[in-house]
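Our preliminary data section would be incomplete without showing what the modeling component actually yields. Below, a chain of 496 amino acids is followed by its predicted structure, encoded as tokens that our downstream tools consume directly.
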Amino acid sequence: MSNLSGFVKRIRDIMRNDAGINGDAQRIEQIAWMLFLKVYDSKEDDWEFDEEGYQSIIPENCRWRNWAVDDRSGNAMTGDTLLNFVNNILFPTLKNLEVTQATPIKKAIVKTTFEDANNYMKDGVLLRQIVNVIDELDLGDYEESHAFGEIYESILRELQSAGSSGEFYTPRAVTDFMAKMINPEIGEKVADFACGTGGFLTSWLKVLSTKVKTTEDQAAYDSSIYGIEKKQFPYMLCVTNMLLHGIDIPQIYHDNSLLRDVLDYTEDDQFDVILMNPPYGGSEKTEVKNHFPADLASSETADLFMSVIMYRLKENGRAAVILPDGFLFGTDNAKMAIKKKLLSEFNLHTVIRMPHSVFAPYTSITTNILFFDRTGPTEGTWFYRLDMPEGYKNFSKTKPMELKHFEPVVAWWNDRQPICIDEFDKAKCYTAEEIAARNYNIDLCGYPHEEEEILPPDELIRQYQTKRASLNADIDRILEQITAILGIDLTGGNDE
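Predicted structure:
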């Protein structure tokens, strides 16, 4: 492709003319399933070369090479013919592929990728134009394939402003920083139990790739990632992302990490490293909470993921997890129990307080990075406040957070010293005893002089909705406790 930089714009311009595409979220989903098939077809070229007798799980008429490629002979499907093929043959076939326990992962992902995928386009001529643009990609060319990996990242970034899809994207500067500080080693395996589009996994691979020296190292690299994603769309994006990054057997599973009893996990279910930005603000139902010990059974989604992380981290393993401020200062019973378990069974050695608007424009919720390992109980926890870079009032879509903005943390990391500015602590170590005496409120080294930010109405509404969800979860939990103590059953009330 001569103009990779114009790839997204070309597709956007074509799709604007299709009555079936309603907004950016649908546009990106439309691109996603076609990109997956294009990338998968390119991978199958390699597998056919390397594996004698390789058989595709996709029937011949549904393989990209046999319906999408336009050889300029005038025989390529277009218009209603193409639309009928995609809607009535391609999608039903891929959604209903026969997959068993014995089916290799690299084949099974085709069915799981298409389980809930949709074709939104209604104009078969425009669909042909989109297919042709995508087919121009030469993924067999190393330089072009690598360049397209960067383009794919730009597509994922657009998810930030595509409505609810923004929850799937963590700024790459953040994932790169966390992977850098975790310092992956050959032979280790990383997990993300709510992996979204695979940002943490790609950052892990980026750092680990610099340490690959032998064919044995390469084999370890290829099998070093594990992800679970609940929602279909980001799952599709993640699988494609892994294929683009050279992972032929992406161990990415379309599942819900919260629907398994945490007490059932064994050493075989544990990982050397966990990197995550768990969903937060959600309120989980009783049937989800039943998978957790009573004292850890929070209604808050992020709290439950913290418990999953603790049960699935190997002895001597390391973790870096993004959590909102509410986890730090929360003192309800479940949060207290989770933080007590964290400090008594794990070494919470560092908490990085991140500035506001890191996740702009999707949300302005203030977040933190918790670094801990399973090497013994916490003796002391360092807190470091990362201030907004000079010249920035807010991060935004046009001025996002960059990796260089973490340089003050990196410089401080290996030579930790307390820092106090204007009588406010910027960096300080607190003992486990001091934290326990604070009822495990770890809201320390925060931002003392933040000016009140005037938010746009849609952002303000989202912020209030998140706060309401968190409050509702707390109210539900307290009501459950009260009704249980009093023996009151509120489920049998009057139906109106």
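Residues 162-166 have pLDDT under 50 and may be disordered. The chain has two domains: 4-141, 156-449. Preliminary results of this kind motivate Aim 1 of the renewal.
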